Amino acid sequence: MDVAKELADYAAANTTAVLDRPNPIVIDAGLLAAFDNTPVDADEYGSNLNTHLLALTLTSTQALISSLFTLPTKSSSSGPITLLPAPSTLLPREKPLPKPKPLTKWERFAKEKGISHKKKEKHVWDDEKQEWVARWGKDGKNREKEGQWLTEIKAGEEADQDPSSTARSERKARIAKNQKQQAANIAAAANHSSDATATSSRGGVSTLSQEQKKNLRERRKEELKRSMILSKTSTASLGKYDKAIKDEPKVKGLKRKFEPTVTNKNDFKGEKEHALDVLHKLETGVGKVKKSKKGGEGDEGGLNVRKAVRFQGKVDRASGGGASAGKKGKRK
């Protein structure tokens, strides 16, 4: 066994000598990447592939590491850190560009009218407290009227109303309106996205698969059937005497039931039970709409004290004899 030859072969296979490249290696320190644009040597590539690839990798890695030592550094608790520049190589996207978000009803109106939208700040200046307070939320500026200890009553307003409850009801109504508009915008955006998917093949080859096209056709067919059934039930005869259409779906549902006008003269049991049932409902008040008691005052069938006081106040102000007639101002 020739040890010297074995050592020489090992040193040749694990050499650290870099290759001379006709074209300089392009370094992108921001991505920690090195690009060798020199054409591959066919003889070296075919005769000794692994050794040649190792030499190319070593050359590119040596050039990359040498470029990192020329960059600025900063000290840290773990030691010096190299500050990498911004990447200069443009890489392709992994995923397609996001589709533009559908405009809401207000955004479409503002775009047509040329109205510029200015985003509101989360905090506003309070002149009384001399500090910045939250615009919304707990202790927000929008709840300022709900906690006032003194409220001015404007002309035409009821003197015995609760300003705090009125302000809270108005705020809750605004919240409900905003939530309703938000739900409408979400539904409109969903419809817009489905329409865009259906019309994605107008400019060229369709991007939908056969399964997606089949599902889309089935969904349209079900919508047409539903619309046809709804239009049939809009008539008094529930579509019984309407002209039938080809391949019209059969309506499945409950039929209206009518009581017979002529009964057996010896059998009046059914008619008697029906009349007694109606009389029982009238006596017990079944089916009557119960009005809610405003403010939780007054018993059912009794006197609503709050309503009576308000009515008497109106009468006194109208006659001019009330103690509070014509008084406007502030109240606690």
From TrEMBL:
Similarity comment: family membership: Belongs to the RRS1 family.
Principal cellular location given in the protein's record: nucleus
Role description: Involved in ribosomal large subunit assembly.
Chain residue ranges for the region called Disordered: 176-228, 287-332
Ranges that cross the membrane: none
Any Gene Ontology CC annotation: nucleus
Location in the cell: Nucleus
Bias-annotated ranges (Basic and acidic residues): 211-226
Protein name: Ribosome biogenesis regulatory protein
